Structures are given as C-alpha cells and as structure tokens.
Amino acid sequence: SLHTICLDHPPEYEALSYMWGVPDGLWLQIWLDGSLTLARQNLWHALNHLRCDKTTDRVLWIDALCINQEDEEERDRQVGFMGELYSNARTVLAWLG
C-alpha cells in the first residue's frame, strides 16, 4: 500500500534502486492499494524476491511507485528529493536481477 509521509519525520524505510528495463519491455501486474497496477518486469522480480518473508512488513521507497510517473511536473519535482530519500533510508537495496 502507498502512504504519504513527511520528509521532516520519515518512518524507517528501505529505498530500492534497480534498472527500470527497456521502455517497450514486459510489464507485469502487482497489487497496490487493492488494485492491480502494472510494474516493469525487473521491479516485479525485485518485489517478488523482497516479499519472500510474508510474515514481516517492509516499508520501501520505490521511485516508479512512489512518484506519479504520469505527472511530469510532479515527477520533475520529486526527482529533486531523490538524493535525500536515498540518504535517509535505513538501507538502500540494489536489485541487479
């Protein structure tokens, strides 16, 4: 699920860094806030791997899901926060596939 947070007092979270993949690559479905959402294949595999322990909740920041990719103005504004988001993460995970 998605949650809006304040960067002044963020919860502990992990940031995921991964290669988006080719623009015309395969998209797969994930459940997000009770609805099916499309995610690029590489992100789908990362999430599937990271979710192997279904008994523990994880708080993740993932650019493709946390930034509205359809809103160019928001996307440009949010990119300016990415350094801070990665710096404040408890852990930065790098998914190489």
Automatic annotation (TrEMBL):
<dbReference type="InterPro" id="IPR010730">
    <property type="entry name" value="HET"/>
</dbReference>
<feature type="domain" description="Heterokaryon incompatibility">
    <location>
        <begin position="13"/>
        <end position="97"/>
    </location>
</feature>
<protein>
    <submittedName>
        <fullName>HET-domain-containing protein</fullName>
    </submittedName>
</protein>
<dbReference type="InterPro" id="IPR052895">
    <property type="entry name" value="HetReg/Transcr_Mod"/>
</dbReference>
<dbReference type="Pfam" id="PF06985">
    <property type="entry name" value="HET"/>
</dbReference>
